[in-house]
Recover the amino acids of this structure.
């Protein structure tokens, strides 16, 4: 439904999660869009309610009460358009209830067409249950067995460049046909399968699949080796998500009639807002959302000045409650323990982690519990980012033409496009980051897990409204951006971290920073951290400070080794963090030295109270 | 949010328990409404499609894919046995020795023949699947071609975590009270076929002994995660269990570590010593949570809905019996003695809604409401 953007003054948005439905109300006041109220209610997808709109109406009613604005009429319908202090102009929603969008993808070569298909599915907001490829080292009968058991919401099949061989991709289609897969929800319809492969294989694919599945055909995801074309597949995924998955979930048909834009899968909407912001500001950004069960990482990078390349990964079993035990298993005990400024008995720690897994809603009461939970969070974030880096790559399988000048600088095909030195902004979201008792804790968790290099702005999402703003960005980018910057983000400040290592105690960097209350200058030595206050302005946006930063001879801050950098640094509720711990970052191996270093950094950054650190 | 506390696990002396027993695919239901059910009784059966094995006939015969159809000796749907020749290339110069063959690798049927890829898919014989009643009770509903609902009156105990699937046996309480650690010395040959009841933690040795003497299940208060890892040989990352095949099913009622079984649960199990119980260790802690369970079937008419134990549900109020489910008071029992409504700052500096608990020993403490579990009475 097309609406005149200038006439949109009141926006109502909901996000239907697995357990909670969150509603926000945005209003245009004095020329800019601001968040007015937020409400939530339990999601009502499952028995005994089995109607998602009940939870939506409860959350909307709460927002209405908090904002003193009547949003629902006597028949419990959302009043639209806004008139005389009543109702809203547009209503939009995202959803991850009922397990979100679960997909299986398939391609011919694992690192080429199958990976492109995976990228398309993840970018559309799906959970990728498995990737089937001709060379995934499984025997065909094992692949068939797997397809049969998965019960995805849909399958995306790719393979072959346009005009290339057809037999490999048809072989995969034959496996799908033999498995005769059934959809997860509803038994009355055929499983949707999207074919986005070699244009010349279309007829053979139709012959193989069309009477067993609901086959849709879109442009090839990899028309030539050197280019990915993900958009047609992503759009088709969104259409099918609405037509099949959403329409099967209880109450969604009604909800779809209410909204002014298609309902988006929650992670797809988060990706949309990150991409919108990165494009508007022409920056490189990484967003992370660490939940109870999964951790999503989103990034926009511009390698060699290219247009922003968006990537999303989901680490399905890295999270802070349901999956906390898996973080522990994957990271291993020593990696979790290295972040703790005290010793803990392994048996005790293991039992505590498992008890959190089986009772996921509990919260840390004691300081000791908070510290170990934040130590686990650092590892969950680190592992999720490792996965992201290995996935966000330049296209694999592409032959590069090289000249003699490249002889000493040969990027491998498939090298990651994640570049921590050029990264401008790192945004964290999810309970352990957004609800950390001190904002400094969120800042240090992000720094320790992601190890930003050079100059990087840090922020956290205050109340997790990125999903609603994501779907809003598709309708009204200006409103979404204004609310994102002023109400959604809590600007923490900026981290300045020279890369390289010097001898113990050696100088890492000298700085001269023009803060609002005067100039400060000094040196940062190896192994030191320093916090300088630079807060927010009256408008709620970060204050700026001009800085001249000079790394030591073999170190770098973004302008080459030993080269001075002049930059404008952004403040925030934490301030400017000067990180002299070097990159690559290495913790002392001796336990006593390690604990002393951790305590020193924690005290300097005011992470925990000195008394708490003393008593542990 | 209205429910700022965790509802406790269900422990009930008498409850109407109904379980749906459904086939993974449509098939034949062999029980009818009114039939008396016992745990090992088959109520429905079906056949899963057999495994599929692809054979690249084009490669084996050295022919282009489009030519294989003319060489096939078996057509789609034809039955085949292992070793059967399914395709043979045409002999060169009419000499038989110069022809090549493709042989079936399994017993079943020919599923498909592709002239695009040269692949022939063979499907193995259907795999029979049976669903059993699991409970002792009565069949109260039949879902045509899908399965049945079995119903019984029973004592019902919900556990917090388990491993292993459905089983049954007679209850055998082997410890004097709910605080005693279940050790291997408590388990002997007389436990064969029984559900062994412990008090607090079960040791890894005790669990090994239970498997050795062929006890069908172990129900106890706690278990050490380190023992669990040693025992399974891997770390459980995500709490989705039930398919482990260890020889016995384990149900933990309270949590990980040295934690005593709740007095009420222990007393209930003790009062049923020697009676038959059906247990399931399957646990899934995600949306659509599944907890492990112990069902002790009782006599009684399943159509008489009046006899259920009255369960009072008051939510969290002054006087509610609770268990703290997180450190520093993990596992301690008490009663709610205060419910202040403003958010309070905890030692961790987090702000949360809290309650005051008076522990059974008399001392008081403030704990976040999220960290307690209601003990349902």
């Amino acid at each position: 439904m097309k609406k005149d953007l200038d006439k949109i003054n009141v926006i109502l948005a909901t996000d239907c999660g697995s357990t909670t439905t969150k509603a926000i109300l945005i209003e245009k006041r004095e020329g800019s869009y601001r968040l007015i109220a937020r409400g939530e209610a339990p999601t009502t997808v499952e028995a005994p309610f089995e109607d998602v709109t009940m939870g939506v109406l409860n959350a909307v009613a709460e927002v209405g009460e908090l904002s003193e604005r009547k949003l629902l009429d006597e028949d419990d319908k959302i009043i639209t358009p806004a008139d005389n202090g009543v109702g809203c102009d547009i209503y939009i929603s995202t959803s991850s209830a009922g397990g979100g969008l679960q997909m299986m993808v398939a391609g011919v070569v694992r690192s080429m067409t199958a990976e492109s298909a995976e990228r398309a599915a993840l970018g559309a907001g799906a959970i990728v249950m498995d990737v089937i490829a001709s060379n995934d080292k499984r025997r065909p009968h094992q692949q068939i067995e797997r397809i049969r058991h998965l019960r995805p919401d849909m399958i995306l099949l790719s393979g072959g460049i346009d005009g290339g061989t057809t037999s490999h991709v048809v072989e995969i289609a034959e496996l799908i046909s033999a498995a005769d897969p059934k959809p997860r929800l509803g038994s009355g319809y055929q499983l949707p399968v999207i074919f986005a492969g070699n244009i010349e294989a279309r007829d053979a694919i139709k012959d193989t699949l069309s009477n067993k599945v609901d086959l849709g055909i879109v442009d090839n995801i990899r028309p030539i080796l050197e280019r990915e074309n993900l958009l047609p597949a992503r759009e088709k995924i969104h259409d099918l998500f609405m037509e099949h998955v959403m329409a099967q979930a209880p109450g969604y048909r009604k909800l779809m009639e209410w909204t002014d834009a298609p309902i988006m899968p929650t992670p797809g909407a988060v990706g949309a807002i990150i991409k919108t912001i990165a494009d508007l500001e022409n920056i490189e950004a990484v967003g992370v959302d660490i939940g109870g069960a999964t951790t999503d990482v989103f990034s926009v990078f511009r390698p060699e000045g290219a247009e922003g390349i968006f990537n999303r990964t989901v680490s399905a079993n890295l999270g802070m409650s349901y999956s906390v035990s898996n973080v522990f298993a994957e990271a291993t005990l020593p990696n979790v323990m290295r972040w703790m400024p005290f010793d803990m008995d392994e048996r005790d720690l293991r039992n505590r982690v498992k008890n959190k897994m089986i009772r996921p809603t509990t919260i840390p009461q004691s300081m000791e519990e908070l510290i170990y939970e934040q130590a686990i969070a650092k590892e969950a974030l680190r592992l999720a980012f490792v996965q992201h880096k290995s996935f966000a790559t330049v296209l694999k399988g592409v032959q590069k033409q090289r000249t003699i000048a490249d002889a000493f600088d040969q990027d491998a095909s498939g090298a990651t496009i994640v570049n921590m030195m050029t990264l401008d902004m790192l945004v964290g979201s999810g309970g352990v980051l957004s609800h950390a008792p001190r904002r400094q804790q969120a800042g240090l968790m992000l720094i320790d897990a992601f190890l930003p290099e050079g100059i990087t702005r840090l922020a956290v999402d205050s109340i997790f409204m990125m999903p609603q703003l994501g779907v809003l960005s598709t309708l009204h980018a200006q409103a979404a951006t204004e609310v994102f910057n002023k109400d959604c983000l809590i600007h923490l400040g900026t981290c300045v971290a020279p890369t390289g290592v010097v001898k113990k105690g050696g100088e890492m960097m000298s700085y001269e920073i023009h803060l609002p209350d005067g100039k400060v200058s000094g040196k940062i030595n190896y192994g030191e951290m320093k916090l300088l206050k630079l807060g927010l302005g009256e408008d709620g946006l970060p204050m700026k400070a001009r800085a001249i930063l000079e790394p030591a001879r073999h170190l770098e801050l973004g302008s080459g080794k030993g080269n001075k950098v002049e930059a404008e640094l952004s403040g925030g509720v934490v301030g400017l963090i000067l990180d002299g711990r070097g990159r690559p970052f290495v913790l002392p191996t001796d336990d006593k030295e390690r604990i002393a270093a951790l305590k020193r950094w924690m005290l300097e950054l005011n992470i925990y109270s000195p008394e708490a650190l003393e008593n542990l | 949010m209205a429910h700022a506390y965790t509802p406790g696990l269900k422990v009930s002396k008498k409850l109407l328990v109904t379980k749906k027993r459904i086939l993974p695919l449509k098939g034949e239901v062999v029980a009818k409404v009114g039939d008396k059910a016992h745990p090992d009784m088959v109520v429905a059966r079906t056949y899963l499609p057999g495994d599929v094995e692809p054979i690249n006939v084009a490669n084996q015969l050295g022919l282009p894919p489009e030519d294989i159809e003319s060489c096939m000796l078996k057509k789609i749907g034809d039955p085949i046995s292992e070793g059967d020749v399914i395709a043979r290339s045409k002999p060169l110069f009419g000499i038989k020795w110069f022809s090549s063959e493709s042989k079936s690798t399994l017993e079943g049927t020919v599923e498909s023949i592709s002239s695009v890829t040269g692949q022939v898919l063979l499907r193995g014989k259907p795999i029979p699947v049976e669903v059993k009643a699991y409970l002792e009770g009565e069949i109260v509903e039949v879902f045509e071609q899908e399965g049945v609902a079995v119903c019984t009156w029973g004592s019902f105990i919900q556990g917090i975590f388990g491993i292993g699937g459905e089983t049954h046996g007679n209850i055998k309480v082997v410890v004097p009270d709910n605080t005693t650690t279940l050790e291997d010395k408590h388990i002997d040959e007389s436990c064969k076929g029984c559900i062994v009841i412990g008090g607090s933690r079960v040791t890894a040795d005790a669990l090994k002994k239970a498997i050795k003497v062929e006890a069908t299940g172990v129900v106890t208060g706690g278990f050490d995660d380190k023992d669990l890892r040693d025992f399974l040989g891997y770390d459980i990352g995500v709490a989705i269990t039930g398919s482990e095949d260890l020889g016995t099913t384990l149900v933990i009622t309270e949590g990980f570590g040295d934690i005593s079984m709740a007095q009420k649960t222990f007393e209930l199990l003790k009062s049923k010593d020697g009676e038959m119980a059906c247990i399931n260790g399957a646990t899934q802690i995600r949306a659509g949570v599944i907890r492990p369970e112990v069902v002790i079937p009782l006599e009684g008419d399943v159509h008489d809905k009046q006899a259920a134990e009255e369960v009072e549900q008051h939510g969290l109020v002054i006087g509610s019996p609770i268990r703290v489910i997180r450190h520093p008071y993990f596992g301690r029992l008490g009663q709610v003695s205060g419910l202040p409504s403003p958010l309070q700052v905890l030692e961790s500096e987090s702000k949360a809604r809290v309650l005051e608990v008076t522990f059974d020993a008399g001392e008081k403490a403030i704990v976040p409401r999220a960290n307690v579990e209601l003990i349902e009475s």
Summary: The mean pLDDT of chain A is 89. Chain A is about 35% helix and 25% strand. The radius of gyration of chain A is 25 Å.
